[in-house]
Every structure is written in structure tokens, then in C-alpha cells.
Amino acid sequence: MNRIHFHTLILFLLAFGLTACKDQLDVGNPNAPTVAGNVTDESGLVSFAQGAVYINGFVNGDGWLGNSYFSLPYGYSELLGDVVGAQASNQLVSTLSIPDYVTLDNGQKLANSSPSIGQIRANNTRAQTGSGYNPTYYQWLNMMAMNSSLNSVLKLIDKISYSGDAASKVATFKAWAYFWKGYAYASIGSMYYAGLIIDEEGKTSSEYVTHDAIIERSNYYLNEAATALGAVKTTADYEEVLGRLIPSFSQVGNGGVLTTDMWKRNINTLLARNILVNKLAPFVNKNPSATITKSSTTAMSTADWNAVLTLATNGIKKGDYVFTGRSTSSNYLFSASGGTVASLTTGTNTSSTFKLSERFVQNFKTGDKRLTNNFEQTGTYLDEMTFGTRWSIVDGGKGAAGVYVYGNRTVGAYELYIAGSYEENALMLAEANIRLGKISTGLAFLDDVRSYQGAGIATVADKNLVLADALQELVQERRVALVFRGLSFYDSRRWGWTYDIANGGGSYNNTVLSSSGTVNTKAVINYNFLDYWDIPADESSLNPTTSSVPTKNPNF
């Protein structure tokens, strides 16, 4: 990591720092130069290791739009995945996800005079970063900062004296650091064309490697975490450490102190995700055999699908604890009203920061209780291209028992998924089985997700669907079940929708509300987005490459 990033981070002084409430976020300031040197006991290491993840990874530097990683970098995923749109100009949120053109039902073509690729590259400068208009900056900043801090954590672990079973506590701390390093590398490798591998405290590097190499490094650390968990012998000491590393306010609902087996299953889910979201599985215009002719990645092979199937079979199960986040009234990881994409989208569309996309809503099937419980047409927001919408999210839902709630701005009510979830794992099992020819088996997993979220619609596993229809069910369910979890762009990319129609991409049969208020149901959208982002100028300009790997995506 370039030193300039670390020095920049020091400027973001924590509001709670070392005085944080013990029952909320018990962190030190991982950026203060003297903190690491002063960590001499378990309590200090807990604070430092927790802050490395939750503060450097998910808070610092994200106060431009909302107030966390889950409102800004997650926001870009939902924008580029066409789940939400925006009117505000902050960080290009109103222009970044505008497609190159939209063809309406009547044949009228609406062209974008400032295409997304040109927008993102024109604003990828240090000057625009300082002004708050460089989208490429934030995810890189957070994940590189998290990784750097965890390098310091790993250097400290063997220097501390421990009470109880020291070996089990050391293994727990190492599993924590390895897991989140794997998470950070996955985030970099899944979003940027290239990256840096830095695994020593204080080390810098100009040797950029491809996103595939970054994903390999993610896999390495996720597997190291699983190995460390295997060294835990005393459950009580393990639970004591992990129970302090995970904030108490996140130990509710699906969040909690994971058993070692639960954590290993969480790891397998992320390993499966690393394969799935970084390969192509084109499904363009309902064609399972579609191909993309110009891309920064390759298509899923049978071996890839089998690897996903094996990992997800041993992935998160129903009832497993996962890593989640919750809002609090103070000293928060994120606020209830502005810290997540969900909170910024909840409320009447004419006043919410993000506007719910018509393309999102069209994926619900008739009679789905998730639609009727969460969304209503309380206002109409009209705009050019694709941002017009008739739909708004009802704050807290309408109270239907057992039905998933998409947005809740009450403090502590909304459960944010930071890493994997049961639904994601089940839908990976569904897609892998479908692609491997076991359609009914795959659709049974999809049916279970719908039941789990209280959709209340008829099952499809028993309908003898052909491949194209089964994949359409899968696409629709991933779009609605995994929304606001930072996955929407990756899905649109791997299904081929974000690529230029000239290269086999595009999206068809879309609902688009035109600026005149006309509802189109068969609109064609040519997004033509970058598939993997360029390295932010704050890194590439100040830390120029010494390798042959470009820092600018050469395929666009």
C-alpha cells in the first residue's frame, strides 16, 4: 500500500476511538502511529484487531454519501447493477450508472452524451478525489487500509501474553486477521483490473498484479483462516475472544459468535463467491448459450461450476451465524438513516437519496409477499434514461409476519450482511446445479430461499422447467433476494448485461419509466460499463507500476 494512503487515513480521527462504549464498538484507532506499539495485552489486541476491520475497513473515508462502506462502495454496486438510481451529484452517483443508450418499446433511442466509461476515467484524478468525485477511490481506500492494519495485527499476535489456552486464542486472532485479509483481497480483485499484494507491516510495493492473482491471494488467506480455526482446542477461550471482536450490537438475529464449524462454512461460501463473481456465465436475452466477445475475464467451465458446487455444499447452512452489522444511536459502525444503501433508498422516491429501480421491481413474481409487504407506488420520480420510478420502499415494511423486510430506518432494526449469507449460498447451489444439468435439484434450493424470506409463491422445482426458464427464475431470485448486499453489479457483469451489445451484452425486456411518464416493458438497455475498474489515480499516479500489468483496464 502506498504510504500516502496511510497518511491520508490519519486525518480521519475516530469519533469514539479509545473511549468507545464497551457494549458497542470497542476499538482503538488503528491509524495512530503509537497505537500498535502500545498493544501489550489481550484487551489492546482486541481493540486493535476490531478497529482494523470495522473502522479502517468500513468507516474511515466514507462520509461523502451516507457514512460507511455499506452506503458508498456498496452503493456503486447497486447503482451499476441497476437496482437503484440517484439524483444527487455526490461521487457521480447520478451519472455513473447511466447506460450508453436505451431503446424504448416504440423504437425511440435515448442516447447518453456522457457515457459511463468516459465519466469514470475523466474523474479518476487526484484532484477529483479531493473534490469527492472519484468513484474508484473509496473501495480501494477501505480495503487496502483494512489489509494494512491486519498486517500489523498479525505481527502483534505472537508477542502478547494470554490467559487461559494461549494456543486457542492465538489461533482465533489469526483466523480473524486471515479471514478479513481474504475479504479485503476479494473486494479488490472483484472490482479492480489489477491490485497490490502487500502482506508485511510497513511494506510498500509498485508491483501490480492482475485481478485473478488478487483473487488467488484472497483464497490463500481464506484457507489460512480455516486452517487456524482447526487449531482451536478450547471452545470457551475461542468464544471469549471472538465474542469481543464482533461488536455486541451485531450479535443478534443472524449475527453472533460463530462456532468454528460455522466460520469454516462462511469461508467456503466466500471461496465459492470468488469463483462465481469473477467469471462469465452469460445469460443475455434469456439465452443460456450467450457469449461475450470482449471481456477482462473468462467463462465459467464445468470444473468451475463443480468447484462452486463443492464449496457451497459445505457453505453456510440455514441457522448458521454470519457476519452482520447493525446501527446504533451513537458510536456507530453506520447510522440507521444513512449508513446503508437500504436506508438511503427507503422512503418516498421523490425524497430518498437513491431511487428504487423499475428493473429491480420487475423481478418479483405475481403474488410475492415480499413485494406487497415492502414496496408501494406512493410517488412518481421522473428522469431521463432509466432512473424514473413509480416505486418506494416502505420503512419497516407493512407488518406481514415472516416476510423479509428490505428497509428499516429504526436504530438497530436493519440487519446488514457484511460477508456471506444463507440465501447467497443456497442460490449458488441453485445456479451450479442448474448449469450442471440438475435443474430440479437447483430449483429446490431457489424455492427454499423464497420460503425462507416469506415470499409465499408457488414452487418451481416440480415444474419441469427447461434450462432457459430455470435460469430466468434464478436471475430473478438473486436480484431480489440478495439486493443491497454489494453483489448486484457482479451479477450483472457475469451474466453479460453490463457489456456492449456489440460484444454480445446488453439487457432486454426491461421496464423503463420514461421522462414523459410512459411505462415501457420491453426496453433494451446498452449499459457498456467497465467490467473491472482502473486503479485509482491516488495510487497509480503516486505509486507508478514497476511491472508489466497495466493499472488501466486495457479492454475498454
Automatic annotation (TrEMBL):
Pfam families: SusD_RagB. The keyword Signal applies. Keywords: Cell outer membrane, Membrane, Signal. Residues 1-22 form the signal peptide. Its main location: membrane. Gene3D superfamilies: 1.25.40.390. It is found in: Cell outer membrane. InterPro entries: SusD_RagB_dom (IPR012944), TPR-like_helical_dom_sf (IPR011990). It comes from Siphonobacter aquaeclarae. Residues 427-545 form the RagB/SusD domain. Belongs to the SusD family. PROSITE patterns: PROKAR_LIPOPROTEIN. GO terms for cellular component: cell outer membrane. It comes from the Bacteria. This is SusD family protein.
